[in-house]
Amino acid sequence: MGRAHEVRAASMAKTAAAKSKLNAKWGRAIYVAAKAGVPDPDLNQALKKEIEKAKREQVSADVIKRAIEKAKGGSNESYSFERYEGFGPNNSMWIVDCLTDNHNRTLTAVRTAFSKCGGNLGAAGSVTHMFTNQSVFSFEGSNEEEILEGLLMNDCEVDDIQCEDGIISVFAPNTAYSKVREALVSMIPDVNFLEDHTTWVPASYVQLETEHDQQKFERLQTMLDECDDVQEVYHNIEVSESEE
User: Fold this and answer.
1) Domains with residue ranges and CATH for the chain
2) Residue pLDDT, tens place only, 68-103
3) 124 near 117, Cβ under 8 Å?
């Protein structure tokens, strides 16, 4: 059928695999949140948060429904949260968050990814002390002073607020996520969040100065992404827009 067909088929397979990985990731997160509390997002804020995040990544309503129904059905699947901290190319620092039903399998997969890319895992706390766990919101706007005043009037704790190129970014403690989000929605009912999540923000960044380091970085990202147990990956490598 020709080279063009092969390229299209490979691209479609890659897209399908990425979609499957995304559905599995959020299905697992929603199942764990529902299983840990009431399987009703109106009564379970952790579940509501996971559903909102899944919807932003265009996870289908069917995937979300199946995960909740699975939790309601009394499934005996049990997942634990695991966090790994490691060092990658050019002494970059990495945080890898996982949900797993097999600790040894996950540890082996993550350790192998780092070792094959010239890095290594560190002890708990060896990396996170150089990051801040924050809530981050960004949306179109220009009056950050008005937004800050409104948040403070709603008794919200805010670490920083910035405005650049018509985009306002609000940084708050990770524990203040729900309160800040509710305040922003009440202040701007039609707000369209460009960013709306909790994340690990590095205190400083490193650059990859050689092509070899860039290759190791890309390989490490790929290997971690291919691990089904990995939910989120954070690092302090400064990545240009063309590389994202």
Assistant:
1) 3-72 (1.10.10.200), 80-128+204-243 (3.30.70.980), 132-201 (3.30.70.980)
2) 999 998 778 889 999 999 999 999 999 999 999 999
3) no
- Sheet arrangement for strand 93-100: 120-122, 80-87, 93-100, 230-235
CA 131 to chain centre: 15
**The pairing of beta strand 167-173 with beta strand 160-164:** antiparallel
Please tell me the distance from the alpha carbon of residue 97 to that of residue 198, in angstroms, as a whole number.
13
**C-beta atoms surrounding 75 within 10 Å:** 12
Which of 88, 125, 78, 102 lies closest to 227 in space, CA to CA? 102
Mean pLDDT, residues 125-133: 96
CA nearest to 39, candidates 158, 28, 48: 48
Distance CA 147, CA 125 (A): 34
Q: Which residue carries 């959020």 as its tokens?
A: 26
**177 close to 159: Cβ distance less than 8 angstroms:** no
> Which residues, other chains included, contact 219 with Cβ-Cβ below 8 Å and sequence gap of 6+?
116, 117
Instruction: Look at 64-78, 144-158, 178-192, 200-214 and tell me which has the smallest mean pLDDT.
Output: 64-78
For 128, counting Cβ atoms within 10 Å of its Cβ (0-12 exposed, 13-18 middle, 19+ buried), the class is middle
CB 120 within 8 A of CB 87: yes
The letter for the amino acid at 40 is D
